[in-house]
Design goal:
With 852 residues, this protein is α+β, with helices and mostly antiparallel strands. It has six domains: 72 residues, Phenylalanyl-tRNA Synthetase, Chain B, domain 1 (2-Layer Sandwich), CATH 3.30.56.10; 127 residues, Beta Barrel (OB fold (Dihydrolipoamide Acetyltransferase, E2P)); 222 residues, Phenylalanyl-tRNA Synthetase, Chain B, domain 3; 68 residues, 2-Layer Sandwich (Phenylalanyl-tRNA Synthetase, Chain B, domain 1); 203 residues, BirA Bifunctional Protein, domain 2 (2-Layer Sandwich); 88 residues, 2-Layer Sandwich (Alpha-Beta Plaits). The chain is 27% helix and 27% strand.
Length: 852
């Protein structure tokens, strides 16, 4: 929200020479976030000039320039000294100008040498087209007032006739600046100068003047409130047959009529400059007035050409297949949920979002019907999103507009049309209001102190709530508080306490951490999950968080036809399924990083996977009302309505696992990286993992392993199918792993006993065996380990050879064995005996033979 400071100063007292830093600091104190400062970027000297004479001079490039003589006020050297020839000495400047939309005698804006225009574009005297141009005659665009660049700004077109030499920045309002703050969705009242002025008053104690009740608006209201039921009442009907969740779409509808306006009059500079600072483009005087009042009071306003309306106005829901051409020139097919403004000819506006083209105010409009209404936030939000049509009006309505300000806003627009557009206020109009009474809230006198830890006296609490506009009545144990109409976010005692803390100052809340009760802390599962993440990160992987929502294709690629949880109202209609696996999210993250030039990727995620045992879940029972607790059957039904959600850990590796360096080529990531990561997860929880040949729909059938702890399968590791990798624009080799972390933790030992470092030396031996080609190397390794007995400390597969020198259908496996005794130094004979025992076990199970 941008707030021009001169505008803000009309409704709250500001200090002299106020700065953006001061305003931002004051608004931050009451909960707004500082965004930016905006100004026109024009620095003086910029003055009003009068064209005394000019000569058209055609140039060789085909362009015609004008050599102008411009009066820019009294001469600086003589001031307003003695008259010469009946006139005081004047400062006459010779200026080259490329525009031709002015005549002798016109008043223009002259940027003198030393001025700086937006860009920045410094002005200096310079030689051009054979003349010394002593300044520049500026256009609207060059001054930052708009985008028009059809010629220079002639002040008479804006209804201005100042004296030459007057400061043009002051005349045009270009000295003003605006501060911008971020408004949270629950504080829609702050999308107005009225709301920000009130908040500045809360922060600083400065006097606030509510523009909604300021004169002469109140005089107009007193005159027009008498139209209800009279001959001058404009017919308005609200016929909402399809309210959303029982909430009628329109609760207030106010109309006013102003006749005989001149829509072609220029928007006055003060209004135009304020709208520009607020970020609003000037369109025409009537439209600018409605935008100005919306920004001032927070009430969206719409104006209709009264001559184009037929019959009265009806507010209703759209009919199936009905269409409307909106002001942006788009014909929209409407939904039965869309709330419309209609007349006898059909739809003339999309309520609370955008008006229609049929009754648009045009340059020939004379009589205007002003509409100020209040619409249901949910209805407007749905319509704006359905049609992808956000607007300043919908932004306010979907956050909640003060329903009591519509009359004042309509009166304010009428007043400005009379004052600026030459119109005449007509008694024709209407006031339709169907507002429920605001519900009072009970608040204990000590509630704010109990919740925040700050001592607020009952008097201070009552004074703060009264200051924000609430009606406060004392009760035996506290207050009955009726929130103001512009604060729909105040719905319970907690929201009132938040207001007390906010206005009194968050700095009063002590920054003290509570003492944790004894016997609490992380559970075993939480602690081990953190250890797993820390170990993977310590080994060079980056933790990521992927969206848990998948498309049908992504889910099927990794989970086949297994049942999935389908969202009833997904954020993305193309991704309605909750993930059964972390792998699709990791692949998408890899694809995105690779597309941005990051070719070496090592990432992991710890997150939930949703593993339903059936297709649909949901609670169909009835929860007990009030403070009653659900019984055992209800709790069981609630539990059954939730699909199983298991913690998983997954990782992905592509590119170079070891980067290229002098004298050594890069080592590409592959299956071994995924297997190592699975081992790291096991080590983090104190469990030994092993691998067996396995499969997964998304992984290479020949390079995929099932991950086991003991005899429990806890996950999978392998390389992505090359076809799937190509479809995602990934390299051919992408290694991944995914483990059911809950299963890993369950299978892990409850206590991990550290192995002491032995003081005795180790004996190392190698063992090369020839085994059938189909024999899994891991099973051979485990057979050797079982046969070698307790002296074997470690066994590692170091080579897998197939080729010349061994029989077809066999392979050679070489293992590195390390033996150690806990109480003595082993002899070579003992180590050899243990190795041969392992060989015997492998020979017995797989027919292994010692390779010669």
């Amino acid at each position: 929200m941008r707030i021009p400071v001169s505008w803000l100063g009309e409704y709250v007292d500001l200090p002299d020479a106020v700065t953006a830093e001061h305003l931002h600091a004051a608004l931050v104190r009451v909960g707004f976030e500082e965004e930016a400062e905006h100004s026109f970027g024009v620095l003086g000297p910029v003055v009003v000039g009068q064209v005394l004479d000019f000569a058209d001079e055609p140039q060789s490039n085909g362009k015609t320039i004008r050599w102008c003589q411009v009066d820019v006020g009294p001469s600086a050297s003589t001031g307003s000294g003695p008259a010469t020839g009946g006139r005081h000495a004047r400062d006459i400047r010779g200026i080259v100008c490329g525009a031709s939309n002015f005549a002798v005698g016109d008043k223009v804006v002259v940027s003198l040498p030393g001025a700086v225009l937006p860009g920045p574009f410094p002005i200096s005297a310079r030689k051009t087209y054979g003349h010394i141009s002593d300044g520049m005659i500026a256009s609207v665009k060059e001054l930052g007032l708009g985008e028009e660049h059809d010629g220079i700004l002639v002040l008479s077109t804006m209804g201005l006739d100042p004296e030459p030499g007057v400061d043009a920045l002051e005349v045009l309002g270009l000295e003003d600046f605006a501060v911008e703050v971020n408004v949270t969705p629950d504080r829609g009242y702050a999308f107005s100068v009225r709301g920000i002025a009130r908040e500045y008053s809360h922060s600083t104690g400065a006097a606030f003047r509510d523009p909604a009740v300021a004169q002469p608006v109140e005089e107009n209201l007193s005159e027009w409130r008498a139209v209800a039921g009279s001959a001058t009442e404009y017919p308005v009907t609200v016929d909402d047959q399809a309210p959303i969740r029982g909430r009628v779409g329109c609760s207030v509808f106010v109309t006013r009529v102003v006749r005989g306006i001149d829509p072609n009059r220029p928007t006055p500079p003060w209004m135009r400059s304020r709208l520009k600072l607020a970020g609003i483009r000037s369109i025409s005087l009537p439209v600018d007035i409605t935008n100005y009042v919306m920004w001032e009071l927070g009430q969206p306003i719409h104006g209709y050409d009264l001559a184009k309306l037929t019959g009265g106005i009806t507010v209703r829901r759209a009919e199936t297949g009905e269409t409307l051409e909106t002001l942006d020139g788009v014909t929209r097919t409407l939904s039965p949920e869309d709330l419309l403004i209609t007349d006898g000819s059909g739809a003339i506006g999309l309520a609370g979002v955008m008006g229609g083209a049929t009754a648009e105010i045009s340059p020939s409009t004379s009589d205007v019907l002003i509409e100020a209404a209040n619409f249901d936030p949910m209805s407007i939000a749905r319509t704006a999103r359905r049609h992808k049509l956000p607007s300043e009006a919908s932004k306010r309505f979907e956050r909640g507009v003060d329903p009591e300000v519509a009359e004042a806003a309509a009166a304010r627009v009428a007043q400005l049309l009379v004052d600026l557009a030459g119109g005449t206020a007509d008694p024709l109009g209407s006031v339709r209001k169907d507002l429920p009474a605001r519900a009072p809230i009970q608040l204990r006198a000590d509630a704010a102190s109990r919740l925040t830890g700050v001592r607020y006296t009952p008097q201070e609490t009552a004074e703060i709530l009264t200051r924000i506009g609430a009606d406060v009545a004392e009760t035996d144990d506290g207050f009955t508080v009726t929130p103001p109409s512009w604060r729909p976010d105040l719905i319970d005692s907690a929201s009132l306490i938040e207001e007390v803390a906010r206005i009194a100052g968050y700095d009063r809340i002590p920054s003290e951490l509570p003492t944790a009760p004894p016997g609490r802390g992380l559970s075993r599962a939480q602690r081990l999950r953190r250890q797993v993440a820390q170990v993977l990160a310590a080994n060079g992987a980056t933790e990521v968080l992927a969206y848990p929502f998948l498309t049908e294709k992504q889910q099927q690629a990794v989970s086949g036809d297994a049942p999935s949880v389908r969202l009833a109202n997904p954020l993305d209609a193309e991704a309605p399924l909750m993930r059964r696996s972390l792998l699709p999210g990791l692949l998408e993250i890899a694809r995105r990083n690779l597309s941005r030039g990051l070719v070496d990727v090592r990432v992991f995620e710890v997150g939930a996977a949703f593993l339903p045992e059936r297709g649909e879940y949901g609670f169909e029972g009835r929860l007990p009302a009030g403070a009653a607790l659900p019984d055992a059957d209800t709790l069981a039904a609630l539990h059954d309505s939730i699909p199983p959600q298991s913690w998983h850990v997954g990782g992905l590796f592509l590119g170079d696992a070891v980067p290229k360096q002098p004298g050594q080529p890069g080592v590409p990531a592959g299956l071994s990286d995924a297997l190592d990561a699975a081992r790291q997860v096991g080590a983090a929880v104190g469990a030994d993992v092993r691998f067996e040949a396995g499969g997964n729909p998304a992984l290479h059938p020949g390079r995929t392993a099932s991950v086991l702890i003991g005899n429990t399968v806890v996950g999978v590791a392998g390389e992505v199918l090359p076809a799937l990798a190509a479809e995602l624009n990934l390299p051919r080799t992408v290694a991944v792993f995914e483990l059911d972390l809950d299963a890993v933790i369950t299978a892990a030992p409850a206590e991990v006993t550290p192995t002491p470092i032995s003081g005795y030396p180790a004996a190392t031996q190698d063992l090369s065996l020839v085994v059938p080609a189909e024999a899994p190397a891991g099973d051979v390794l485990r057979a050797i380990a079982a046969g070698a007995g307790p002296l074997l400390e470690r066994i590692t597969l170091v080579d897998d050879y197939r080729g010349a020198g061994i029989e077809p259908g066999t392979k050679s496996l070489t293992f590195a064995l390390r033996f150690r005794a806990p109480d003595r130094t082993l002899t070579a004979a003992e180590a050899t005996e243990a190795k041969l025992s392992g060989l015997a076990a492998a020979a017995d199970r797989f027919g292994a033979a010692l390779r010669e």
